[in-house]
Known about the structure:
The protein is 60% helix and 0% strand. By secondary structure, the protein is an all-alpha fold. It has a single domain (19-89), classed as Cytochrome Bc1 Complex, Chain D, domain 2 (Orthogonal Bundle). Helix 3 crosses helix 4 (67-74) and helix 3 (47-59) runs antiparallel to helix 5 (79-89). The N and C termini lie far apart (43 Å). 15% of the residues are buried.
Amino acid sequence: MKKIALLTTLLALAAFADPYAKCVTCHGASGEKVALGKSKVIKDMSKADFISAMKGYQDGTYGGPTKGLMEAQVKGLSDADIEAIANKIAK
């Protein structure tokens, strides 16, 4: 049980250290995946479109079938976090 708690804590800290880390599971290391078979390929999005989408998820004005899931994922991201992810993955 202690090992599970420690692992969970370490994974959470890694996700907070690099906000992009929580994107990788569904979107792939380079943003190349269609997440859950429903999303856009984010590596093909412009930085402006990506930032607009993330802010739209945050305020509830953007999204399709994965809107509820994405709202929860981006809720705690700062503008700087969103910009850093956009610089890392979008065109």
